[in-house]
Specification:
318 residues; alpha/beta; Rossmann fold; 2 domains; seven-stranded mixed β-sheet; 19% strand; globular
Length: 318
């Protein structure tokens, strides 16, 4: 990883994940992919173009798509169910819960348009409650890659992990942080910037805002440690405690409702294991508006400047 030499990403995480998925089709001849009629948006069509006999477009019927994928998985195959996050985690929630999680089947979810990364598409396509819904389900694991290489590596992690795995992906390319040799694992995280004064935890798109916030704080003499908590469930408990032992303060910033997101999980963990000054940034019981992504980051308190302000606030250095 190279936080001080980030480059503009050329593909969104949804495409990087699907490109690796298409490559995997040659490795496992029983591997199947299900789509809910937006394959050219999720890029799952890249798999379908190569393996049409193992690619099933179920139409705009996400519950049926998940149920069919569960049926294939019950027969011993690994299956991917692909759609926008808001549809997988709401329209198809009962099917995910009852037909995939309850029997603990090997279905992986390609969930595109996470958070308000589809900013201009409006609230109907913004998945800002998806982490809450998926982390609540027993047996479900949740991964959120931030860039191209993280997406490819976390596809492999999802495939190698038994049972259901939900992978939250973004609409648009942002930046590339990781390199081909960087390791990823279920339950892992990466310290992308080391610091001693405050820990900033994030995942997905907000990792880049957290890195920017660390730069702002450095100009004020505050050394922030930035953690990419790409494995949201299970999260890296040991890594978090190690960081908090150094910094003694925590800011969690996520493109999600504050309620029942990673921030709630980490605050509960800290209350039981290490009480520290804490701030949780995200949507405060509101839907996001339709507009430019950058303006939404600022309005809902997730820009680098707002994250830096939160860190200074809990350190008493405003």
């Amino acid at each position: 990883m190279r936080p001080h030499a980030m480059t503009p990403a050329t593909v969104p995480t949804r495409r990087a994940f699907s490109e690796r998925m298409a490559e995997y089709g040659a490795i496992d001849g029983d591997f199947v992919v299900f789509e809910a009629d937006i394959g050219y948006s999720t890029f799952s069509h890249l798999f379908g173009d190569k393996y049409p006999e193992r690619y099933f477009n179920m139409g705009i019927a996400e519950g049926n798509m998940v149920s069919a994928a569960a049926g294939m998985a019950a027969d011993g195959r690994t299956a991917v169910a692909s759609s926008y996050g808001v549809f997988i985690t709401m329209r198809a929630l009962e099917s995910v819960r009852t037909f995939v999680c309850y029997p603990d089947l090997n279905v992986k979810f390609l969930s595109s348009h996470g958070g308000f990364t589809p900013a201009i598409d409006g609230v109907t396509h913004q998945a800002t409650e998806d982490i809450a819904n998926m982390t609540t389900l027993p047996n479900m694991k949740v991964l959120v890659p931030a860039d191209t290489w993280a997406s490819r590596k976390l596809f492999d992690v999802a495939i190698e992990t038994p049972g259901p795995v939900f992978v939250r992906l973004m609409r648009d390319p942002i930046l590339d942080l990781y390199e081909p040799g960087d390791p990823f694992r279920m339950g892992g995280s990466h310290v992308v910037i080391e610091g001693t004064d405050v820990t900033i935890v994030s995942y997905g798109d907000i990792v880049f805002e957290a890195i920017g916030a660390a730069g702002i704080l450095a100009k004020n003499g505050i050394r922030a440690e930035v953690i990419d908590m790409y494995s949201v469930k299970p999260f890296d408990r040991e890594g978090l405690l190690k960081s908090l032992d150094k910094t003694g303060a925590l800011v969690v910033a996520e493109n999600h409702q504050r309620r029942n997101g990673l921030g709630y999980e980490l605050s509960n963990f800290c209350l039981k294991n290490k009480v520290v000054p804490f701030e949780n940034l995200g949507l405060e019981d509101t839907f996001a508006e339709s507009g430019s992504y950058g303006k939404l980051l600022e309005k809902y308190g997730l820009s680098r400047a707002r994250i830096a302000e939160a860190a200074k606030r809990i350190l008493g250095r405003v």
